[in-house]
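Q: My labmate handed me this sequence with no annotations at all. I'd like to see what the chain might look like in three dimensions before we decide whether it's worth expressing. Could you predict it?
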Amino acid sequence: MRDTGVLQNDRNVATLEMEYQTMLYLSSANFEERNYRMACNQLEAVVMQRKAMLRYKSSHLSAIEVSYSQFQDVELSYRIAVCYKELGEHSMAISTLQAVKSRTPRLNMLLARLLHHHGRGVSKSEIAVAYKDVLRDCPMSLTAIEALIELGIDGSEVHSLVVNAAPLPKNIEWLSSWIKAHAQMYGCKHREAAKTFQHLNDTTMLRQNEHLLTKIGKCLYYYGNYRQAEQYLAMAAMINPHNMNALCPLAVVYGYNSKKKAEQEKLMTPMRIRGSGEFTSAHWFLYSQLSYMSTKNERALIFTDRALAIDPRNIEALLLRGKLINELGRHKEAIDVFRSAQCLAPYRFEVYKGLLASYLELKRLKDAQTMCVLAVRYFPTSPRGYTMLGVTLFSRGNADAKKSAKKFAEKALQIDEHYPPSIALMAGLLQDEGASKDAIKLLRKQVTNYPHPNLFAMLAEYLSEENDFDGALHFFTLALRIEPTFKRALKGVRELTKAARNSNVASKPSASTSGSGSGSSSSTNVAGSGNAAVNAMATPCGTPNHEWLLDCEEVSNDVLELSSPAVVPQEDAESDTFSEPFWQDVDGEMTN
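A: Here is what I predict for the chain of 592 residues:
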């Protein structure tokens, strides 16, 4: 069967029709065995032979195609396009499909996805037309609906396309809410999208559907609510342990929620039964995320490169790669990575956070201003953009900027009064104004219901400044219970221990002289040691303040929090300041 030369050389062995049918079976077998190069050559030879048979008006040709639908001309073109796609020759696949005059919905979907993911110089309108062709014949194609919304097509327009395309089946009232939720998700309204998906989960027969749970978890993850996101993503992963759409964001959320390595490795258990040939881009990303959380950054970078080599559109891998490169000090390269992610997923806040951190490292403040403005304007219903802008203004040290920073912090807390970075920003601003008691009260209220190691450490430092060392030790201990390797809390405990030792040493000689003088001296020494500890913890390892922006939600990294604004060197004071109209314009927009 492998050599058809005998059939071609001697027509007494087989007629042209028999040779054609033999070639059909042979090419089909190679296609099913994923021998795409050989299958592609054979399929193209079959198409050429079919054209010759059409010229001779062979009656056997129609009989074959009526009996075997997989051997029809349209199906042959589809298989050739798939072969080119698998071989990485996407332009050939696109031209093959475009040459087909009457395309089936399956061909239109393949063409639309190829144009969407691999089309060079193809406009969004042309891609949208391909997806609309799918909906014209298959109005219930959820993949096409979601792709159109992702391209920026208005949700109401997509809904009208679905309703007017063809007679719809009964009991699909949920479809309108499903379209609305996706329009909200891709429109940067992640909290609203989560509520709409949740309404579907509560009121329809789709309750506890793994795909719906994954959507809810993703929206909460995009919004920054990692605790609830973990619950929904974990439920989806429990229903289907191989659901990579749930496992990849769940791995990231585990890192934000300070989950231990053992819990993260549970995500890898279903993967270990697979062969290396079955690994996809998502599998490599899971390994890279696990390596990153184990502080094996070089290995994590290798795994992200493997993930992106398979799928350059893997958003989570792009974001992690940008973060890793930024930590290595290659900020210009990180900007390119985040820019690529921005082109693919402009609805992800992490893109703008990563770009801002990179621009600040390179002192490109005008570009940093742009990122702050975009974050606020693209995410008007999220506290994350307002908090990021507030932190940036607060870190500048300008008095007017700090006033605006407080307005943005208040706006963020109006949207979500329990968002940890907004709480930390407001506490830092209150502490900077000298209202330490208000800052401590705010932090106490937050950590009572929403424990967070960074906020515990921040509260402990403020209590230490107020000479409440027992309270400081208590909250440092609570932080370490959540994350035993939290460097900021460990350093705080060491500094408090040093302060206690210094106070004991100071009290011994003073006890032999005078009681009143010794008490004053002892308290002074303890306070001085405690304040020194807080000052030392405020800038661990000399990290610049704005690095908090890149990892403000991550509690496992040694990053600076908001306990003190960065001090700008005198010689760089002019170059390291934002222009006033930049934040005043945004302030005015927020007021209106």
